[in-house]
Amino acid sequence: MSVFKHSELCLLETGVSAGFTPLANFDLIWMLGLGEKHDFLDRCQILSNLPASQLVNSPLASIFFHSKHASLPHSPLFFSGNNAHELAAAAQRHPQVSRWVVKPSAGSYGRGVAKTNSQDELLQQLAKATAGGKYCIVQAYVDEIVDGETRSLLVNGEIIGSYLRIPEKDFLANLSQGGRARSTVLDTQQTAQVIEIGNFLAKKGIRFASVDMAFPWLIEVNIANPGGLATLASLEADLHPNIEERLVRGLRGMLGWRTGD
Predict the structure, then answer these.
(1) Which CATH class is domain 144-259?
(2) Which of 76, 100, 172, 174 has the greatest count of CB atoms below 10 A from its CB?
């Protein structure tokens, strides 16, 4: 395995390279994280010269699915935009929803996420989130989040592990926001829902992702830097001490699909 900096990516007469190392020499390429904003699109376009089967996640998927604008299976009602009054008016057209969550379109670790309990509070949070023309997401709050979010790691269509994240304050289950991780086992219906989302993502060129659900609702999909492997390893140390084997099996599945082995 080799690791290169995002800034080393380039296109030479030998093809897509990292520095002077042709990436055609590697079985799988994974752009982990998004890197610097100023050259993100350049890197995605360069990587698009590689065969799709050589990439863990499609660079186009990084563009279209890292932010939260796309509607996915089991998503709650949501809107996106950069006009606070338009978004507030859209929410008001759905009086059956009494609470809304406002969050950055491409945020992480629960930063900048706020729950609102009134139209005035919603407009206030929207004005803050869209300041300077920034885009944000307005998502219907789902009561199921009180019981926590289940994070599942998907590799090549296979669920390699799941764990529950319990909110400690308000509704944020992110471990970076004080949430607690706990072992969990998906039931048949939950497994089917996660696999359905995984199949949807696979068709879009996403073969490694983490899926956060407050069943039956999809809260978020993470593809740029899906965390959870270390947490799974610590939670399963006694019962299922083989998370690495499941990860390797999933990655080998990608190679088998590419080479026909």
Answers:
(1) alpha beta
(2) 100
